[in-house]
Amino acid sequence: MKIDFVVPCLMGLEALIVDELREIGAEDIRAENARVLFSGDLNILVRANICLRHAERVQILIGSFKATSFEELFQGTKALPFDDWIGKEDAFPVKGYSLNSKLFSVSDCQSIIKKAVVERLKEKYKLPWFEETGAKYQIQFSIIKDVVTIVIDTSGYGLHKRGYRLSAKEAPIKETLAASLCTLARVRNFHTLYDPMCGSGTILIEGAMKAFNIAPGLQRTFAAEEFSNISKEIWKQERTRAHDLIDRNCEFSAYGSDIDEESLLIAQENAKRAGVENCIKFEKIDIKDWERKSERGTVICNPPYGERLLDIDTANDLYKIMGEKFVREHGWGYYIISPSEDFEKIFGRRADKRRKLYNGMIKCQVYMYFK
After folding, report:
1. Contact residues for 272 (Cβ-Cβ < 8 A; gap 6+)
2. What is the pTM of this model?
3. Burial class (CB in 10 A: 0-12, 13-18, 19+), 97
4. How far is CA 125 from CA 25, 60, 117, 140, 272, in A?
5. DSSP H or E run through 27
6. For the chain, which domains are there?
7. CB neighbours (10 Å) of residue 148?
8. Structure confidence by residue, pLDDT tens digits, 205-226
9. Each residue's pLDDT tens digit, 21-68
10. 117 near 82, Cβ under 8 Å?
11. CB 38 within 8 A of CB 27
């Protein structure tokens, strides 16, 4: 059974997800703005949820069509094969959004799509109404420039919710973005990783999970585990596969520091829950007192900045200190995410490479120093 899927993602991470999908055996992979499309079977559906580090969620693509009237929206929706997935007892709530389209009322579109799905299922199951007491099949729609795309979500909670982060202080970096920084920095199982402003430890934990090849979704559940179309045996197979791929025999180590003791306690607990506490050491150290503890290393950090935690002047002072501490030397790489267009000037030297990414709604650059 070949299924079409959509993986929404943060803008700028599409290429990383394409690589991941190739690794897990997906087919027909193609990247678009803020999403990647692919196809595969039920095992790939489950594997993608368990293994993708950079994606926001995995959705089944039910269909796409153009609609400029409510009648076109109704008929286009009714023609789609919802009955391939949704049973006569299942719940199928509808939500979505519209951008730059003639059909701009989200509530009206939501109501019409729901009605069309009901009519489709009535014809299939010969029932006058649906109690919707069974498994939840969340229908999501987008209408962009009059093109309607309808999907069924399989993830439930966003894939950034790995299951290890119980709590965090202000402005924690999203797990998917932290994993992406580690991928861009080419973190490997022999690396020594540093985050001198580690907060709740997310970058270091994601780096350790990548080094040990721990699948990010092993500690959580997914909406599709309740789908009648997917056997429990497939979930068991894919979790076993992911466990078998974990490699603890590596030399990876990491050091995290911060000036906030409460954040460090949270970081230690998060690392323990992720199963990587033995390879990460946390210390209370101000960035101005930060020192390297190895001959080689990779530094990745998400420093606080004006839009996020600090005023602009304080953030700039921090960048200057970082420029002094992060010296150019063979065997060392530095990867810093910041929204500041003046970062390189304040830091003190031009980056060897830059990459545009979004941290939430904030447009940023990853400044990479590795030469």
Report:
1. none
2. 0.94
3. middle
4. 35, 22, 12, 22, 49
5. strand 27-32
6. 3-153 (3.30.2130.30), 175-214+249-369 (3.40.50.150)
7. 24
8. 999 999 999 999 999 999 999 9
9. 999 999 999 999 999 999 999 999 999 999 999 999 999 999 999 999
10. yes
11. yes
